[in-house]
Every structure is written in C-alpha cells, then in structure tokens.
Sequence to fold (728 residues):
Amino acid sequence: MRKYRSHWSQGDREGYQRRSNYYEGPHTSHSSPADRTREEVVTPTLPGHAATRSQMATSLDFKTYVDQACRAAEEFVNIYYETMDKRRRALTRLYLDKATLIWNGNAVSGLDALNNFFDTLPSSEFQVNMLDCQPVHEQATQSQTTVLVVTSGTVKFDGNKQHFFNQNFLLTAQSTPNNTVWKIASDCFRFQDWSSS
Amino acid sequence: MSLPSGHTTGHTDQVVQRRARCWDIYQRRFSSRSEPVNPGMHSSSHQQQDGDAAMHGAHMDSPVRYTPYAISPYNRKGSFRKQDQTHVNMEREQKPPERRMEGNMPDGTLGSWFKITVPFGIKYNEKWLLNLIQNECSVPFVPVEFHYENMHASFFVENASIAYALKNVSGKIWDEDNEKISIFVNPAGIPHFVHRELKSEKVEQIKLAMNQQCDVSQEALDIQRLPFYPDMVNRDTKMASNPRKCMAASLDVHEENIPTVTSAGEMDKWKGIELGEKCADRSPVCTTFLDTSSNINSILELFPKVLCLDGQQSPRATLCGTEAHKRLPTCKGSFFGSEMLKNLVLQFLQQYYLIYDSGDRQGLLSAYHDEACFSLSIPFNPEDSAPSRFCKFFKDSRNIKILKDPYLRGELLKHTKLDIVDSLSVLPKTQHDLSSFLVDMWYQTEWMLCFSVNGVFKEVEGQSQGSVLAFTRTFIATPGSSSSLCIVNDELFVRDTSHQGTQSALFTLVPTAFSSSVPAFSQEQQKMLPS
Fold:
C-alpha cells in the first residue's frame, strides 16, 4: 500500500501529465468511421492491453484500469442520458443482447423486452449530479474488462413529478485492435423516494 | 332471461320511460356541443347535423349523431318491446351501407368487444395464465387474439357479462411467486382483427373517435367517484327534475381528475346505453342489461375511466394516441434473483453492518478481497451554499462529475483491503437501520454477485449526532469461503434526507428486505425502528 502511494505521489504524476490529453477533449463518436453510430461508447484500446490484462497486481496496470474506467464512464454517461432523453429508440443499442435492467424493482431482460420497456416509459429529462466509477476486479468478471458506473441526479418523466434517482451500470468492454466498445451488461435504476411515488 | 313477449311490468315501463326522458333532455341540452362520431353507435331519428366542427375531422358520408338513448322519442307510450322493434327498424334504414360489413354480428352491427389485460402478464405462459383465469372465472370464456403487449398480456372477449365476470377474477388469482394477478377490462372499440374487414377510411374515423375519448392524464378515476350512473337509474324523480345539474356535478367530478375530458368523454359514459340498444338485436347482452339496474352498473364499470381499482392504474385502450399509453411501471420493493441468493445477501448485510456499526471496523478486513476497491461519493448540488450535514464526507467524495484532477481521482479510489478498512475506520460512527434496507440484486453469474442497498443510517457521535442520512451502497462480490461473500468492489453514495422527504418515507412501514428475517436488535437499534 505504501508502494502504491509513492507511485501515485511521485513518479506517476508525470505519467498523468503525459496522459492528460485523455481528459482534455471529449472523446465523442462524431468523427467516427462509417460503421460507428452516435449511440456507441468508444474509447481507444489500451496499449498492450491483451498482454497485461491478467496482471491486475502491478500498480501501473491498476492505474491504467482506473483511467480507462473513468474515461469510459464519463463518455458513457453523456451518451446514455442524452440518448435516453432525445433519441429514446436508439437506447437499446447501448445494451448487450442479454442485458438486464432492474427498474424500481421491475425486472426487464433481453433486448426485446428492453425495447418494449423503453418504449412504454414516458419521455424523460435527466440531470446527473453525481458520477463515480470503479474497474471491476477480474476475479468477478473472469477477465472480461468491466467497469462499475454509479450515477445519481434528478429525472422528470412526462406526466410525473420530478424524482431523485440512483442508477448503477456494469459496462463491459468489447475490444478490437483500434478501439474498445462499451456496452451495458446490467442496469439498476431506483427512485430515491420510490415508496412515496 | 328474456322478457316475455309483449309484456313488461308496469314498473319497468315507467323506469324505462323516465330514464329515457332524462337522457332525452340531456341529449337536447348538450346537442350544441361538438360530439365526435363513433361509428359503432347507431343512428337515431334525430338526425341533427352538428356541422363539421363536431366531427373533429372525422368525415362520414351521412353524419351520424351519437344519441345515448335513441329510442327515447318512442318510449313515451307502449311497451319496451314495441320500442325495440321500432328502433330496430329505424336503425336499419339509416345505417350507411358500409356498416353492414362491420363486426361479427349477423345483422352487421359490431359485437361488444372487450379487451382483457393482465398487467405484467409477459411473465406468464399463455396456457397457464388462461387456465388459471378460467378456473376462477364463473363463466366459460373464449379468449380471442391472445398476445403480449409491452409488459402485459391481453386478449379479447366478445361479451360484456363475460368481461364483467373476468373483471371479478382480478385479485383472486396468484402466480407462482404468490403475487396477486390483476385483470383489467376495457371496451375494445373495434379490435384490429375486425378492422381488416373495414375500409381503411373507417378505421381512421374510429381512431379519431377513440383518440378523443382517451384522456392524456395519468390520473385514474376512483371507482367510487362514479356516482352518477347508479343514481340515474335508481333515483329517477330527482334526475328527471334536474338532470342537467346532476350531469354537471358528475362532470365536475370527472374534470377534476381528467382535465382533458371533453364531450367525447361524456359520450363515453353513455356507451353502456349503446349496449342497451344492442338489446334490440336480441344479443345475449341486452336482456341482462335491461333487466336489473345492477347490470347497468356492472357494465358501466367496464369503461376506461371507471376501470381503475382505487389506487391503481389501468392499462390503456390500444387505439389511444401515441403518448397516452406511456406510463411509469409501479415501483416495487427489493428485488432478488432467487431465494437462496436472497438469504445469502441478507445474511451478509446483517453481519457487515453489525461490524460496521460496532465501533471497530477492522473486523471488516475479512469481508474484502485483497485487491478490492472502495470509493465514496456525495451528490453535487449547485444550489448547496450552506454546509450540509454530510459535509464531513466531502473530503473523501469521489464525484468524477466535478472532480477532474486525475491525481485526485486516483487517490480517492481506495485499493486493497488494508487501505479500504483504514478509510472506513475514519468515517463517522453510524447506526444503520436494517429495517429501512431496500436491496436490488441486479446481476449475477457463477463468479459474481452485484447488489445495491438503499437505506438510512444515523450518526451516533460528533456534532451531527442523531442526524439521519440516506445511502446507496453497491457491492460486487465473489463467492468466498464457507458460503460467504468476498467484496471486490464497494461504492458508497451518501445523501442528505432533509429536502427529499426520504427520511419519513423510509421510516414508515414499507416492505423492506429484512421484514421477515429481522434478528433481535440491540436497544440502540430498536430506537431507530419505526414505532
């Protein structure tokens, strides 16, 4: 643990500076190749990703995963809520085929059911006030790169009063040589005041 | 139970006459209001043309005005039977030719179709569900066009009393998870499979009429609030003397709840009377309808606005406008994938929070994986100017929405169990209210269990002692030794309760994860339980 601290505070701060370009501009898909749509969360593939994937133990890798997680989470959250609000019909493109959603205790499973569900949901206006993320340990994911994303904020569904909400996602990475596409494996949504709604 | 031919009791006759008079008066009073055309209605002798404005865009070859009780001019004398016959003759003459192609009734009129819906019926197998319903239903029914729609299961039946019998099954059947199954019934207008026989133009007209009848509001009308129809039948003298006032009163009641109600909505109320007219065709519906007032009530109960059982929402008729069918699903309590995992998770949480609240959090070391991660966040609220009760969490908060510094982002994510438990140990001392816990188990595989806990806790020392805060904590765990869980990821989100009313909500009686398996609480814990 001390070893990590020294890395964080000394040598790697320069590392962060070098990599700061990751944080400068939003990585959007606007200038994407033809096969990419707006509703995709894409980040550059980490260098040497395949080789180092199994070595969570070294600090360098862990930091890399943390960076990657943060970038994916930020990119994802921007796209997700905008799609939910403005292009609802495209939302399920962000989900894996077998993805599941627990929405205020209601379980929705698979793309067909998800499509129906989002179609039934009234139009929405989301405001995200909190975002946190963590790389998920490979022991839980069997080396399938996964990020836990946690958000919170307010939402107003048409015809309903405004609610505070919490939402959690598991994003999994599908890497190609050029980039990594992130999709939702699972999604859990709750109004904070669900019992009085 | 048909009326003996040529004979009615004097009383029935008078009742019918008074009823008809009232509605006749109503019809005249409201005749200047624009009324949409529902081609399902019969034409009447009062062929008043209301002008194009009344049609709301629907265009008919021969404008037909929906009159609730078309036999009214005829029932002032003579028996009811005679009125029937007169009405039938008249209706046949005036029906536009296309009408005869509609529906399945031999004489060309539309059958009374009802759509039966089981909310969230998508979870049930069709055969199983229909059997279950039939076992409980007092009359045999033939489900037509069973299908799943959004989250619901639906089918059609072609008879109002069958529809009513099905409605009575609601809440009397249970699924395999011991959850009550509800049944909602709506008049179906003209179901799509009947549509195919109609000209497309007619379909458009029907849709327009249906659109007007659907309310946009999410509010449901309490069944209690439909006072008018039974009164109309039972207290005839009062009605006769001042039907308009009664009608207005009734409308006020409706308008409170459904702001968009229009005269189309009013017309809706009288749809039941349309069924009465069908009696003239001697379908099985009519005789029961006219025999007793209770049947009027029961049929009137089947209409969309009256449909909702108190406190619930009904699914909407399919032909409504695009946004009208959208609604929020009912919020439910804790979700667990399986009973076994539920017990595992609840046990874990009991043990975890026992240690967490004990004063010494070092005991949690055994709960975490060597390389686990932990972070904590609080919401960013731009309007927060005053220091809030949970600002002591602020310095550890890793809200990457506002925290942009990559170094800090790294620092605030605690890695390895030693680091984690050290950080947890410096957080304020707490007392969690297990009875407030709501748990969502939202992902599981052989190697991973992902669940989120929502609840409240009290701070038990320091300046904010006694203040209640709400939290959402997400755990990702792998199977540990001896059927325990080993945490690999832990994210804690803490928020204030004061301006959200959550505190009161969570401390009142709501179904919680622990309601059935609450252990004996310490005295301190007991103080936190709802009284």
User: Anything to note?
Assistant: The longest helix of chain B spans residues 10-29. Chain B touches chain A through 72 residues (CB under 8 Å). The longest strand of chain B covers residues 468-479.
